[in-house]
Design goal:
The protein is mainly alpha-helical. 70% of the residues lie in helices and 0% in strands. The chain has one domain (4-130): Four Helix Bundle (Hemerythrin (Met), subunit A) (Up-down Bundle), CATH 1.20.120. The chain is built from 7 helices and no strands.
Length: 141
């Protein structure tokens, strides 16, 4: 690829894909914590790219990314709620606080939204469809 932007997007999509694949494997193995971590990292790769492109800044690490997404009232409610659910982990689950039942699907909601801003919506949607992450599964762990 001669186009540096196209190469950057290709690398970004590869990183996101790897995280989602790793997360999906972890989920199938019953490791919801690992799946949640991978979902968060997939979101962080895309969200942090927005900053590099001068489009938006949601912080420099995964936790900050999610907190700022939740607080950004300019984002669609579905995106903010998905980010809020992804913030919750094992402690949230144990305490009865909000957490994601389907972290990879919540990541997909966020990824689809921001992929549109980067002009890679078709590629991200294709990836999510291929990995069967467009609709939450009917049964949880």
């Amino acid at each position: 690829m001669d186009n540096p932007e196209a190469q950057e997007y290709s690398e970004l999509l590869g990183r996101i894909r790897w995280e989602l694949l790793t997360g999906a494997r972890a989920w199938q193995e019953g490791n919801a914590g690992r799946a949640r971590t991978c979902a968060r990292r997939a979101v962080a790769w895309l969200v942090q790219t927005l900053s590099h492109m001068g489009l938006a800044s949601y912080g420099s690490h995964v936790g900050e990314n999610l907190r700022r997404l939740v607080a950004d009232e300019t984002l669609p409610e579905a995106v903010r709620h998905a980010a809020e659910r992804l913030q919750g982990g094992a402690r949230a689950q144990l305490s009865g606080a909000l957490y994601s039942l389907y972290p990879l699907h919540d990541a997909g909601i966020i990824l689809r939204h921001f992929a549109q801003r980067l002009g890679i919506a078709d590629e991200v949607m294709s990836m999510l469809t291929e990995l069967n992450l467009c609709d939450p599964p009917s049964a949880s762990l």
